[in-house]
Amino acid sequence: xxxxxxxxxxxxxxLATGLAGSAHCLGMCGGxxxxxxxxxxxxxxxxxxxxGRLLSYTLLGLILGSVLPLLGINAALPEWGMIVRRLTxxxxxxxxLQMLLxxxxxxxxxxxxxxxxxxxxxxxxAFIPTRSHSDAFIxxxxxxxxxxxxIYSALGLAIxxxxxxxxxxxxxxxxxxxxxxxxxxxxxxxxxxxxxxxETSKRxxxxxxxxxxxxxxxxxx
Length: 221
Fold this sequence. Notes:
By secondary structure, this protein is mainly alpha-helical. The protein contains 10 helices and no strands.
């Protein structure tokens, strides 16, 4: 299992990934959030929707964090530990670097995820428009599976933890990072959107993540 310091690095990196992807989050999921938040009747369903979305991310982390140890890829094992930690540190640095780029290269992977998303997308139609908290919660669960390069980046960090609980926490941290931008279109002021999507903010988060990755890599030597 990762040390507390290494886990903290993963959590901060996942949180920063969610924050830095604010513009992308608004494009992918903002429409659903806005349809709930801008409708006075459905606004009360926002907590259920975002709760379902965060649970979806957390379960993805829990599942992937459980599968790899079963395959013998476990950071607690001497033969894997150093390799996993160094690869994860390298991934953190790459995620930070992509925050400095105009386009996330991992978004090219989204096309492969759409094959799995199509049947889920058909299922979501039954819950739009949202009529209850359960509808909003299930919609959030489904929307958490939307093909997204940002999610794939965070899942890479979760897998690197090689532990189900740690992986679940990493994905939860990523989900929390997406909340400010998602809530800004419905609850908060537009100033928050501008601050989160500003290029300077994104670059500052990118530099922070790179430094976290370098620190994590330095610990392995």
